[in-house]
Design a protein that fits this description.
mainly alpha, Fic-like fold, Arc Repressor Mutant, subunit A, 5 strands, elongated
Length: 372
């Protein structure tokens, strides 16, 4: 179907499409992807304190997903201000931290409602930090960043958009005869094609995809670094989106999204395994060097975030303020942590953990300090 990119694509068809979305190639790929995703679900159980995962990998996803939309900051900055968002001055840091918040709030909301239009609205409101709703005015277009040429004009009219969202919502929650991994791929295209908000659609769509996997019990917690693959294959991502819109090329799009899911699931499994190994290693090291202050809770606290504050130990009831300060300084003395002063506050960095999170899954082996 030939479309005029400059005119609203009000003819966008609902889901499921008429194309063969369950070809032999797609179904075989679903089996492989489901196997790796199941490994990720199992790997998450390696770390009993789930806060270690919930407070780390979603930050990597937040940073990468925001980068896709040209909101760029460093992972170090994100972790530095993760528990003191109000202190962050960089707008990109604040906006990326809101992605983490939107993902976590959406995850908690799954206990009361499935992924739906209301979820999308709440996620986008949190991302943008303003009260917004479905688009009700014309003029929204998607244009090439360099040439400014219009690439796509989404549907217009609030009632029309809400109708298409109602179909989207019904499909992802009721079309149970279709493999959830195929629904995962279709829901992402359709949400971006509907483009229900004036801004924030890409990030909102990627959060909804992760929430959908949790909803379908394919993940237990939202710890999938999906945007990593999209960043590495960004040109293909946008080309295939246009391929569906302009040529109905659904199979290529579905296979791309399954590749993204399989690739990032395997990567996340390796990252979780490395975190588990470093956590176990650090527990043994601290127990041997500091037996009087050692506790599992203390070591896990410095794995919840690479930057730890005295207040984190106090709030977790590990120790009162002065004792908590002494504990962290003792960990500095044996080389586990590094102390930084930021204004009036002291931050304690876990350098190996930060390098593991921001590097490859075997980083900690290469950065072993003498005696550790």
């Amino acid at each position: 179907m030939k479309i005029d990119r400059s005119k609203p694509f009000n003819e966008l068809l609902g889901l499921p499409p008429e194309a063969d979305i369950e070809s032999k190639t797609i179904l075989k790929k679903c089996v492989r992807t489901a196997r790796v995703l199941a490994e990720l679900k199992t790997a998450g159980r390696l770390i009993p304190n789930q806060s270690v995962l919930i407070n780390t990998i979603p930050f990597l996803e937040a940073n990468a997903s925001s980068e896709i939309e040209n909101i760029v900051t460093t992972t170090d900055n994100l972790f530095r201000y993760s528990s003191a968002e109000d202190e962050a001055r960089d707008p990109a840091v604040k906006e990326t931290l809101r992605y983490r918040t939107a993902l976590y709030q959406g995850y908690l909301a799954l206990s009361t409602r499935p992924v739906c239009t209301a979820t999308a609205v709440k996620v986008c409101q949190t991302l943008r930090n303003i009260e917004i709703d479905i688009r009700d005015v014309p003029g929204t277009v998607i244009a090439d960043e360099k040439t400014k040429n219009v690439i796509y004009t989404p549907p217009e009219g609030e009632s029309l958009i809400r109708g298409k969202l109602a179909n989207w919502e019904k499909f992802i929650n009721e079309a149970e005869e279709i493999d959830p991994l195929i629904r995962f791929a279709l829901m992402h295209y359709q949400f971006l094609a509907i483009h229900p908000f004036t801004d924030g659609n890409g990030r909102t769509g990627r959060i909804l995809n992760i929430l959908f996997l949790v909803q379908e019990d394919l993940l237990k917690i939202p710890v999938l670094f999906l945007s990593r693959y999209i960043i590495n294959h960004k040109t293909q991502y946008y080309r295939l989106l246009r391929g569906v819109t302009e040529k109905g090329e659904w199979e290529a799009w579905i296979l791309y999204m399954l590749d993204a899911l399989e690739n990032t699931s395997a990567w996340t499994v390796a990252k979780i395994n490395a975190i588990s190994e470093l956590l176990e290693h650090t527990c043994k090291f601290v127990r041997n060097r500091l037996p009087k202050i050692y506790s599992q809770e203390l070591v896990e606290m410095i794995f919840i975030q690479p930057y730890c504050r005295i207040g984190n130990l106090v709030e977790s009831h590990i120790a009162k303020r002065q004792t908590a300060s002494n504990y962290l300084k003792s960990l500095v003395d044996i080389g586990v942590l590094l102390e930084h002063k930021v204004g009036r506050e002291k931050l304690f960095l876990h350098p190996k953990f930060l390098k593991l999170l921001t590097g490859d899954s075997h980083t900690f082996r290469r950065y072993r300090m003498s005696g550790r």
